[in-house]
Amino acid sequence: MNGTTKVAKATSNGHLNHEQPPLDHDLHNGWGTLYSANAIKNDERTRLVWEDYAKNPARVEGQYHKLLNEYTTRFASFFGGYWPITFHAHVSDVLIPTTLASLILNTASTCPLVVEDPKLSPLLKDDPEPEKVHQFVRDLLGWTDVHISAPKLATVQGIYGCAFGPLAHSSEEWEYQIIGAGPAPFSITRDDFASEDILLEKLRTAKEQGCVTVICDLVNASDGSIFPPEHYRMLRICCTKARIFLLVDEAMTAIRCGAPWVCQRPEYSENPDLQPDLIAFGKGMGVSGIALNFNGMMMRHLAYTKREQILQTIRFWRSMVTRPIAIPVLLEAMAIVNVAEAEEWPARSEKIGRAFREFILRHAGGEGQGKEIVRGIGAFIAVDREFSKRFRVMAAFRRKSSWARWLPKLDTPAFVDSDEIERYLLGPDAKELRRALASEAEEQGTTPLWCCICGIDAAVVDDWCRTCFLGYCGTEDCKKGFESHTCL
C-alpha cells in the first residue's frame, strides 16, 4: 500500500493507451471539473488504496488520518507552500463571510504568538482566559466588533460570483442574482485602480465596514478576460498597507493556466514578499476548499515559521468536524495532485493552450484581424461564442456571455498538437470518433451530456445528432440552434 506515483506510459503515437480516444469534442467537461477521467487509474499509490477500500473498507478507514495528512503535505508541496485546511462540496460553500472570518480567527487564535505564550496559551494554562486571547487576536488582525458580528467580503469588479450566498449578488447572471442572500459584498471597481492612493482609501473603507478579506479572480471565469498584472500588484501593495487579507479565487484556474496557481505565473508573482493569504480551489481538484499561505501578506504576521505549527493549526480547525473529507473523495483528490505532478500538467496546460489558440486562429483567418476571437490563459480558453459554433463542440457557457469556454482535459497528450486537434475535431478522424461515441451512448442508453447551444445539462431527449454526437437541453431556442447545425 506504499506504492509510488506511476502513470501509464505513452504509446508510440503519444497517447496514453489504445483504449482511450486520442481526444474528443467535450470541451465542457462538467464546467471544468474533469482534468482527467483516469487519475486514480494512472496513480499507483491511490489505485492500490482504492482497490483495498473496495475489498475491506474498514481497514482503509483505519488509515484515514494518515491518508488525510499525506494529501495535505502532497498538496502543500505541489502548490508551493499553500496548505489545504478546509474542505467543502462546492467553492460557493466556503466563500461565505462568516466561514472565512471563523477560519481566519481560528488561524490567529492558534498561532505561535498565542499557543507559545504562557500568558495567553490555553494549552499552557490551568485556567484559560479566552477573553484575553480574543482581544489579542482582534488587535493582531486590526478587527473590531463589526468583523466578528457582521463580517463582509470585498470583491474586485469582474469576479465570477458564486452560485448562491452573498457573492451571488455579484454575479452577472440573473438566475444567481435573484437567489443571492446575505450581506452584499463591498465592491472595488476598476476605476479604483486609477491610483494607489484611491485604491488604498477604498480598501481602508472596506475594512472599516467589516470586510475580512478581498477576493479577486486573475482570469475571469465567465469570459476569459485577464486581470492586469499591474493592477494585481497595486492590489497586493494596498492590501498590505490596509492590513486586509487577500484571497485569490482559483476554482477554475488551478493547474489549468501554466502554473499550479495562476497567481504563481511570472507576471503575477514578481515579488515574493507580496503573496496572497488564501486561495479558493475546487472544480478539477476533486474537492473544494481553502488553502492558506503562511507567508502571505497578512498571514506572515501570525509568525508561523515551523511545519509543526502549521500542522497543529490545521488539526485544530479540522477537529471541529467529524470527517473533513470522505475516503473516496480524498483518494480522487490525492490522485489528481499526484498525477498532475508526475505528468507535469501545469506545463502541459501551457502547451495545450498554445496548440488550441494556433488551431483557432488558423480557422479564424482574416476574422482574427481587428477582432478578439480567443481569450484566457493556458488551457482556460474562451472563444467568441458565434465563432465557436463552427467547431461543433460541447463548451461551457454563461447565458449572457458572448464567450464559449473551452476547458479541455489535461491528461490528453494529443491536445498539445494543433494538427492532432484539427484531425480529431474536424478532420478525417472526427466523424468516425464521434460515431463511435454515439454508438456507445446508444448501447448504454445515454445521450450527450451537455447542450451544445447553452451548455447546461442536456435533457434526455431522443432528438440528438448521431453523426456529431451533439444534443440540446430541450428548450425551443436551443432546439432551433441545434437543428441549424451542419453535420461533419
Compact description:
The protein has helices at 29-32, 39-42, 44-55, 57-61, 64-78, 91-94, 97-109, 112-115, 130-141, 145-149, 174-177, 196-208, 229-242, 307-318, 327-342, 345-364, 385-388, 418-425, 430-444, 476-483; strands at 82-88, 152-156, 186-188, 211-216, 245-249, 278-281, 288-293, 374-377, 380-384, 396-397, 403-406.
Please tell me about this protein's structure.
The chain has helices at 29-32, 39-42, 44-55, 57-61, 64-78, 91-94, 97-109, 112-115, 130-141, 145-149, 174-177, 196-208, 229-242, 307-318, 327-342, 345-364, 385-388, 418-425, 430-444, 476-483; strands at 82-88, 152-156, 186-188, 211-216, 245-249, 278-281, 288-293, 374-377, 380-384, 396-397, 403-406. Helices cover 39% and strands 10% of the residues. Mean pLDDT is 91; it is low at 1-19. By secondary structure, it is of the alpha/beta class. The chain is globular, with a radius of gyration of 24 Å. It folds into two domains: 63-340, Aspartate Aminotransferase, domain 2 (3-Layer(aba) Sandwich), CATH 3.40.640; 346-484, no CATH class. The strands form two sheets. The chain has a seven-stranded mixed β-sheet with strand order 1-7-6-5-4-2-3, with helices on both faces. Strands 8-9-11-10 form a four-stranded antiparallel β-sheet. The chain contains 20 helices and eleven strands. Helix 12 (196-208) crosses helix 13 (229-242). GO terms for molecular function: pyridoxal phosphate binding; transaminase activity. Keywords: Pyridoxal phosphate. Residues 1-23 are annotated as: Disordered.
